[in-house]
TrEMBL record:
This is General secretion pathway protein GspL. GO terms for biological process: protein secretion by the type II secretion system. Residues 32-140 form the GspL cytoplasmic actin-ATPase-like domain. It holds the Pfam family T2SSL. One of its GO terms (cellular component) is type II protein secretion system complex.
Amino acid sequence: MTPLLLIAPLPPADAAGEYDWAQAGEDGIALRDQGRALLTLLPSSPEVTLGIPSAALSWHRVTLPKGSMGSTSKLRAVLDGLLEEHLLDEPETLHFALAPDAKAGEPVWVVACNRIWLRSVVQGLEAAGRRVVRIVPEFTPQPVDAPPLLLVTGEPEAPQLTVCDSDGVVSLPLAGAGLALSNGLPLDTAVISTEPAVAEAAEHLLQRRVPIVQAPQRWLHATRTPWELAQFDLAVTGRARAGKKFASVLQALRFAPEWRAARWGVVVLLLTQLIGLNAWAWKERNALESKRQATRAILTQTFPSVKIVVDAPLQMGREVAALQQAVGDVAPSDFEPMVGAIAATLPAGRSPSAIDFSAGQLRLRGLGLQPQEVTQITSALSPRGYQVRTEGDLLLVQAEANR
């Protein structure tokens, strides 16, 4: 589920009061739900994205000197000096945020807002169990090669025209004076939209039909920009920042339209692997079952008296042993073959003091074998189907059941 989007209330509104909110669907794009509620009555979501209204922000373009981005404290001091003459308030009372991918020695956008107000909003949300994972501005400057954006917002009695282009973000009253100031805008190439409440005023003054975009949908679009206002003293560090970055990348991979083909590719690859593994397992099961059937067939054809097959190799060994006993032949597990095999492998001059034989197991005492001699005997008898081990001075020779 995507994080809940909350719109910060402008002062003098209470930070613990009512919030406008919106939430996207599973695609992260389409508006799923929206409303306005007290902080304690907002939809359940431990993580929220905080939107900052344009009226609370001011935009400035500066060129950072070389080496100014070595540390946050140094960068903050540099911004205080660069913006001091352009601000109505003292720099220490303001919160600053740099544009994404800002570089020293190049012009860069800096957005400013009241630090105390912003911190009170963030702290109020976190005190209520709502962790702020991102802070985004309502409007942002456009890249140089992008068309300008014209957005008509506000209430019917006081509509506002906001212009977002490569020169920054400016809000003007939607009236003759405001339009006169914006005469230099290329209206034919600009992307224009309006909120439903001021759609009639926008179409009347602009003399054209204007696409309607609801405010919650516009705010969701703002969350898809790369801007992040949680910087300097509001920035998370260490593991939290890494987790936040990972969550942002994961969100983009999961919902961003440009990754749709990659997502489908991963799904197709996983399905192909799953189908292939199941086909391979089915083939192996069939091969194993064919071998079992062949073993059963050999047993029942060779020994027709066997009617029920439970363990074909074991039953085959028993039938062969019974057949050998019936014709007077000896089996490898009989006394004579075992004594002959062990006699051929014992070191010269070694003879047992006692011999005991029972059910295919030969026990020899008093040999006094060294460990290396036992190893040699084991290596010699193992290919012939005999297992050898020692228990004190006792040498045990056991015929393997499946031989």
